[in-house]
Amino acid sequence: MTYTFKPAVRENVSLIIALAGGTGSGKTYSAMRLATGIAGGKRFAVIDTENGRASHYADQFLFDTCDLRAPFRPDAYAEAIKVADKAGYPVIVVDSASHEHAGEGGLLDWHEEELERMAGSDWQKREACKMAAWIKPKSGHKHMMNVLLQVKAHIILCFRAEEKIEMVKVDGKMQVRAKHSPVGKDGWVPICEKNLPFEATCSFLLLASNPGVPHPIKLQAQHKTFFEDGNVIKEMAGEHLAKWAAGGQAKDDGRNTTKAQVKWPDEVETVEPPDPIMPVMDDSLNMDRRIVFQDHLAMIESATTVAALSNETNAALDNQLLTTEQKAAVRILRDKRMAALQPKKK
Q1: Which residues, 6+ apart, have CB-to-CB distance to 61 below 8 Å?
Q2: Do residues 82 and 134 share a domain?
Q3: Are residues 285 and 155 in the same domain?
Q4: What is the mean pLDDT of each run of 10 residues along the chain (346 residues)?
Q5: Residue 260 domain-assigned (yes or no)
Q6: Side-chain-side CA neighbours of residue 110 (13 Å)
Q7: Closest CA to 153 of 39, 263, 249
Q8: pLDDT value at position 249?
Q9: Domain total of the chain
């Protein structure tokens, strides 16, 4: 087989944009404004799972709508998106994509159906089958994401967000606080598959306390100038994104560089690996990652049964935000807690 390399050129890139927010946060209206800017005056498509709510904006924006009903399997979303893409719409808005995760027939329901099929009402067997029951739902979700990556149209996914709390151990005492999450803010967390916001081109959380103002979850340097700090999302942001996706120059405020700074192998500094027992002290880790890591440790530490300990450990080891060193620390703490929970031999 012959392998041929050619200069990389950015052209006709399909965007995937995720907007999450609770009631009154302006996520649907902001999605419409973005879609209008990206579409450049053309009609765009809206896949509506909210019983026609998107049509409330019919007098303000130019779009066609299609209702998507339960069951909200990933394949149902994938098929609707492929139909809209084949029809030639430049932009497809999905409102709400949260149903794919938590709606009737969505991933959570599918997981429960698999558990029922595999273990029935045998609760001990259900506990053992929890991870295996995710195989089909996760496979369906991955197929949907592959469809999103292959269509020509730009995709805007709207997600609901919910306010969550968590219990953490502070100075030996359990405290209740607004949930800290790498995808959340002030306790508000998007309702979606946990990795989806990071698979998008860019993703944002919107709050009802300041409707329409995006709080970045994922925002690359070349897109930062399209979303001005403290300002609501406007059609202009969509126009800039469309130009960038087509291969045009991004709006430059001095933060975009024209030449990458590369260190060749002989220039790379050697860094001693961090202590695997205390990776949380490594200053190179960002705050969100530290918080997530500490939360996992707190939940493992507070587990009172072997089953709960196993669940919390698996959740930590499956978390892609954690580093290898952090996961090593999770295993060490698990072994210590497992020894403490095992019945003492007489």
Answers
A1: 32, 33, 35, 36
A2: yes
A3: no
A4: 82 92 94 96 95 92 96 97 97 97 95 94 89 94 95 97 83 80 86 93 95 94 90 95 83 38 34 36 47 78 82 82 78 84 65
A5: no
A6: 23
A7: 39
A8: 62
A9: 2
Asked if 49 and 101 touch (Cβ cutoff 8 Å), the reply is: no
Strand partners, 167: 176
CATH number at residue 147: 3.40.50
What are the start-end ranges of the E strands in the chain? 16-21, 44-48, 63-67, 91-95, 154-163, 165-170, 173-178, 188-190, 202-206, 215-218
Q: How far apart are CA 30 and CA 244, in angstroms?
A: 19
| Contacts of residue 230, Cβ cutoff 8 Å, sequence gap at least 6 | 213
Rounded distance between C-alpha atoms, residue 291 and residue 40, angstroms: 41
Give the count of beta carbons closer than 10 Å to the beta carbon of residue 323: 16
3-state secondary structure of 223: helix
Asked if residue 186 and residue 309 are part of one domain, the reply reads no
84-88-94-95 Cα dihedral, nearest 10 degrees: -90
What global pTM score does this model have?
0.70
pLDDT of residue 329: 82
**Which tokens in the block code for residue 174?**
């359990």
Q: Calculate the alpha carbon distances from 107 to 98, 104, 110, 112, 148 in Å.
A: 10, 9, 5, 9, 17
pLDDT of 81 reads 97
Residue 185 DSSP symbol? B
Q: Is 42 helix (H, G, I), strand (E, B) or coil?
A: coil
Range of the domain at 103: 16-245
H or E element at residue 51:
none
Q: What is the pLDDT of residue 10?
A: 74
The DSSP element (H or E) to which 233 belongs, if any, is: none
